[in-house]
Amino acid sequence: MTPSTRQSEPARPPAGDLSAPTAYADSERETKASPTLLDDWMPAFLAQLAAPGAHLVRAARSDGTPLLHLFAPDREPFAEFIARDGRWTVRQGGPVPLWDRIEEALVAWEAAGNPRPIQRWNGYAWEAHGFAANLAEAKRIQYPDSKIEPPAQEPGPAPRPLGPGIGRHRKPQASGPERR
């Protein structure tokens, strides 16, 4: 959602009147997953996979009721969320049910126990390694049983000391006006 999860794409919320497209919703229902889940990075990432480029915009009605709007990049599909008594109602419109796609991904993620990805640095970039349900499981995967000793390595050649000279990386000698 906003901010964009892709580095090359700047996060730009839709401009103009946000209430105009939401005036004519095709459906209205109670949500299965709270749209506030999108405040966390993992659900927001899943939402970007389900609806690439979608933007979540926060607003409030004149009476102070919080509103959330979800717009697709072309501004045709939309979802509007209204908080009522601790529950969220979604109104959707446009050619694609935007929230249905995202909600399906969020419900599946919650049903799986909210797993978190584990990544490892390969010396060039972070790469996916697996998923873990909690920190203990992540540590078990990242740091396997410490009782297993790594194979013994033969010592390499001894490091060579620096030779004489006054290279730029060396500290100049304080005594003597002579320089080579």
State the end-to-end CA separation: 62 Å
Rg calculated over all Cα atoms: 27 Å
Q: So, CATH architecture of one domain?
A: 2-Layer Sandwich
Tell me the total number of β-strands: 7
Overall body shape: elongated
Structural category? alpha+beta
What is the CATH C level class of one domain, in words?
Alpha Beta
| Percent in helix | 10-25%
Spans of at least 5 consecutive residues whose pLDDT stays below 50 are 2-8
* H and E string: HEHEEEEHEEH
The largest pleated sheet is described as: 5 strands, antiparallel
Q: What is the average per-residue confidence, as pLDDT, rounded to a whole number?
A: 75
Strand content: 15-25%
Briefly note the CATH topology name of one domain: Double Stranded RNA Binding Domain
How many individual helices? Answer: 4
Q: Taking strands numbered 1, 2, ... along the chain, how are they ordered across the largest sheet?
A: 1-5-4-3-2
Please characterize this protein's 3D structure.
- Helix content is about 20%, strand content about 25%.
- With about 180 residues, the protein is α+β, with helices and mostly antiparallel strands.
- It has four helices and seven strands; from the N terminus they run H-E-H-E-E-E-E-H-E-E-H.
- Helix 2 (about 40-50) packs across helix 3 (about 100-110).
- The radius of gyration is 27 Å and the shape is elongated.
- The strands form two sheets. A five-stranded antiparallel beta sheet has the order 1-5-4-3-2, with no helix packed on it.
